[in-house]
């Protein structure tokens, strides 16, 4: 994104004017990686907050816009990468300011995306990302250059789990919608109550982390133990409080579609958006039918990407949701 600033006439990698800049770098002893099984790690210890001065922070603010809405983008399990940058450009093309960042780097880690994608527990990745993303929201609320009554969140995969949990703690005076693609229920779990509208994004070919080719993302159920220990929880009240490493560890969590149905029955403003010819992370690029090994030998399906028509359909649906005509 930084290299495209002059092409797209955006102010990139700069603080929002009108926001008091107080840097918040992580102390040297923050967040430790601990190997808990062969080639599988957890993160222990205190976590970093959002640092607006961090090198990974990318801001895109339309030069011509007066108080544009803001999309905060919470990255997937591999960290800030092409999917997040591609969708940021798509949102920018619709007149939105965008904010992206790398929560792992803010915690002092420099591992590559392959390590994060396949060798660190969901709950560890999501806890880091949740704290940083929520901090980004509170920081953005101080801006005089964006419309703080029109803030939205987007998250892919582990980032989807982050933003649906954030949907339980933000103020509807500021946040108008949350878009969560490829939601896993393992990690932070899913919240009991939502305060803002949520749209779950599903590529119909998304089998990411499925043990069978047709084990679709929205049907996957992992063991409760994958939600980690209660003592580490920082998220809103939800499923993880009843289903975790300390309580019912061998039970299965609810699937994303079961959580959706429970929320719908409660009257929550939540919908599923479905996309043909799309797998996990439709903005990653063209469809790729791969396998991935988690830890030492846990091989699973990992179809990613999608056809341009799926991305175009999402932008069309997004425009309708936010009222762009």
Secondary structure layout plus pairing:
Blueprint: H1 5-8, E1 10-12, E2 32-37, E3 40-44, E4 58-62, E5 70-74, H2 82-92, E6 97-100, H3 103-106, H4 113-119, H5 122-140, E7 151-156, H6 158-166, E8 175-181, E9 198-203, H7 256-265, E10 270-275, E11 288-294, E12 298-304, H8 308-322
Parallel strand pairs: 5-6, 5-7, 7-8, 8-9, 9-10
Antiparallel strand pairs: 1-4, 2-3, 4-6, 11-12
Q: Oligomeric state of the chains?
A: single chain
Q: Sketch the major β-sheet.
A: 8 strands, mixed
CATH superfamily membership: Alpha/Beta hydrolase fold, catalytic domain
Q: Which secondary-structure class do the elements indicate?
A: alpha/beta
> What CATH architecture would you give?
3-Layer(aba) Sandwich
Distance between the termini: 26 Å
Please write the string of helix (H) and strand (E) elements.
HEEEEEHEHHHEHEEHEEEH
| Poorly predicted segments | 1-18
Tell how many strands the DSSP assignment holds: 12
Q: What's the structural domain tally?
A: 1
CATH class: Alpha Beta
What does this structure look like?
The chain is α/β, with parallel strands linked by helices and 325 residues long. It has one domain (2-322): Alpha/Beta hydrolase fold, catalytic domain (Rossmann fold, 3-Layer(aba) Sandwich). The protein contains 8 helices and 12 strands. The chain has an 8-stranded mixed β-sheet with strand order 1-4-6-5-7-8-9-10, sandwiched between helices. It has a two-stranded antiparallel sheet with strand order 2-3. Strands 11-12 form a two-stranded antiparallel sheet. Strand 7, helix 6 (158-166) and strand 8 form a beta-alpha-beta unit. The radius of gyration is 18 Å and the shape is globular. Residues 1-18 have low confidence and may be disordered.
């Amino acid at each position: 994104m930084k290299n495209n600033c002059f092409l797209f006439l955006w102010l990139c990698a700069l603080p929002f004017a009108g926001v008091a800049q107080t840097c918040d770098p992580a102390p040297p002893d923050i967040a430790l990686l601990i190997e808990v099984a062969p080639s599988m790690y957890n993160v222990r210890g205190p976590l970093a907050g959002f640092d607006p001065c961090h090198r990974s922070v990318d801001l895109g603010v339309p030069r011509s816009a007066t108080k544009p809405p803001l999309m905060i983008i919470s990255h997937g399990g591999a960290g800030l990468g092409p999917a997040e940058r591609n969708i940021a450009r798509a949102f920018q093309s619709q007149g939105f300011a965008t904010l992206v960042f790398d929560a792992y780097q803010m915690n002092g880690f420099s591992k590559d995306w392959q390590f994060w994608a396949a060798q660190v527990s969901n709950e560890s990745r999501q806890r880091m990302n949740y704290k940083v993303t929520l901090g980004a929201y509170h920081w953005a609320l101080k801006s005089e250059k964006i419309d703080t009554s029109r803030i939205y969140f987007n998250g892919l995969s582990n980032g989807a789990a982050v933003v649906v949990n954030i949907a339980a703690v933000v103020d509807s005076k500021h946040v108008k919608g949350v878009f969560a693609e490829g939601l896993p229920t393992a990690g932070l779990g899913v919240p009991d109550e939502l305060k803002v509208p949520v749209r779950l994004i599903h590529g119909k070919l998304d089998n990411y982390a499925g043990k069978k080719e047709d084990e679709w993302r929205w049907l996957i159920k992992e063991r409760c133990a994958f939600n980690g220990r209660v003592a580490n929880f920082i998220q809103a009240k939800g499923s993880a409080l009843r289903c975790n490493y300390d309580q019912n560890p061998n039970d299965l969590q609810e699937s994303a579609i079961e959580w959706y149905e429970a929320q719908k029955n409660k009257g929550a403003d939540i919908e599923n958006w479905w996309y043909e010819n799309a797998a996990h992370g439709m903005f990653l690029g063209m469809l790729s039918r791969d396998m991935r090994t988690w830890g030492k030998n846990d091989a699973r399906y990992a179809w990613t990407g999608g056809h341009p028509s799926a991305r175009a359909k999402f932008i069309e649906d997004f425009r309708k949701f936010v009222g762009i005509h």
